[in-house]
Amino acid sequence: MSIAPLMLDLKDTVLSAEEKELLAHPLTGGVILFGRNYESIEQLEYLVKQIRRSTSRELLIAVDHEGGRVQRFRKEFTTLPSLAALYDVSDNEQTFLQLSHHHGWLMASELRAVDIDFSFAPVLDLNYGVSDVIGDRAFHRQPDTVSMLAIAYINGMHEAGMASTGKHFPGHGAVVADSHTDIPIDKRSFDEIWSQDMQPFAELIKKGLDAIMPAHVIYSEVDKHPAGFSSFWLQQILRQKLAFDGVIFSDDLSMQGASVIGGFTERAEAAMEAGCDMMLVCNNRKGAVEVIDNANIKQDDTSSKRLESMQGRSFMNRSALLDSKQWVETADAMISIC
Fold first, then answer.
1. CA 198 to CA 143: how far, in whole Å?
2. Mapped to the 3 state alphabet, what secondary structure does the chain carry?
3. 214 strand-pairing partners
4. What domains are defined for the chain?
5. How far apart are the first and last CA of the chain?
6. What pLDDT is recorded for position 44?
7. Is the preceding peptide bond at 102 cis, omega within 30 degrees of 0?
8. Which residues contact 20 (CB under 8 A, 6 or more apart)?
9. Is the dihedral of CA 116, 10, 272, 4 positive or negative?
10. How confident is the model at residue 299 (pLDDT cuts 50, 70, 90)?
11. Distance of CA 85 to the CA centre of its chain
12. How far apart are CA 298 and CA 301, in angstroms?
């Protein structure tokens, strides 16, 4: 059964009656979880079952679980280091690539073991040292190092049955402003962005990157719209120039960086028109309801087919995972970095 184009959030650790109704709506195709949705492994497993049972249709369940500052589930999950730490603690290429693979596998395996489809990872931005919101969420400053580490990381994710999402296309690391609370403007030329920030995306697309999330950043020398609402970035560059045929997720439409487009209805319609396969509407229930009630969006067969590729593949349950030698050794390796 096809997967619909909206991803919504939840307010608490169990589904409310309103949320059951929202998840059953034919435009809803996914749920993103946050720290507020987590108390314990047992509670999380029950919540995931509630979500799955809320509709006869397939729903994607996602989370931002990168490690470092951005790890939604803490208690009973392994504490993961930031991506930047994987290179910083290494003294040779073989070691940092192995650590990156371990990080990707461990993150993915612990989520797949509780039936969460995927984490929006990895970050492919470059760490220019100016963006507090990116910072150590990025692997490194140099594009070739980011590409090497990200390939190893994604191989680890795939080994655990999880699809990958590279973010934030074409690169968020060179602007100071935080798109959660501001409207970032990057004044660099296309050639500069292409030669630096876009190289990891270009390289990872060749290696089988499953999905991409564009930035709520305006690259003013290139296009007047933020990348996630720009047919230039998503169609001409991503689909045509880079030949990317995977999923395009919008970033959260409630972020300040999306506000230049208008209200929630306009944001959802613009993101879909630009080329997003799934739109995220989080942390604003009124906005989510507005989109469902008023936005002129529809299920697209091509997008639905792409979205099916984000479903988690078969993996062991949590008890089997914790009993495995691979989990014990990998968790120990990650904890030693933190």
1. 8
2. CCCCCEEEECCCCCCCHHHHHHHCCCCEEEEEECHHHCCCHHHHHHHHHHHHHCCCCCCEEEECEEECCEECCCCCCCCCCCHHHHHHCCCCHHHHHHHHHHHHHHHHHHHHCCCCCEECCCECCCCCCCCCCCHHHCCCCCHHHHHHHHHHHHHHHHHCCCCCEEEEECCCCCCCCCCCCCCCEECCCHHHHHHCCHHHHHHHHHCCCCEEEECCCEECCCCCCEHHHCHHHHHHHHHHHCCCCCEEECCCCCCHHHHHHCCHHHHHHHHHHHCCCEEEECCCHHHHHHHHHHCCCCCCHHHHHHHHCCCCCCCCCHHHHHHCHHHHHHHHHHHCCC
3. 169
4. 6-335 (3.20.20.300)
5. 42
6. 98
7. no
8. 54
9. positive
10. confident
11. 20
12. 10
Q: How open is the CA angle 198-263-284, to the nearest 5 degrees?
A: 85
pLDDT at 4: 96
Contacts of 305 (CB under 8 A, 6+ apart): 2
* CA-to-CA separations, 290 to 19, 59, 227, 265, 313, in angstroms, rounded: 14, 20, 23, 6, 33
Question: Active-site positions?
Answer: 180, 251
Tokens of 260: 């230049």
Per-residue model confidence as pLDDT tens digits over 16-71: 999 999 999 999 999 999 999 999 999 999 999 999 999 999 999 999 999 999 99
Give the model confidence (pLDDT) of 222-262 as tens digits: 999 999 999 999 999 999 999 999 999 999 999 999 999 99
Distance, in Å, from the CA atom of 94 to the CA atom of 91, rounded to the nearest integer, reads 9
* Structure-block tokens of residue 37: 């949705």
**Tell me, what's the pLDDT at 1?**
60
Tokens 């008023």: give the residue.
294
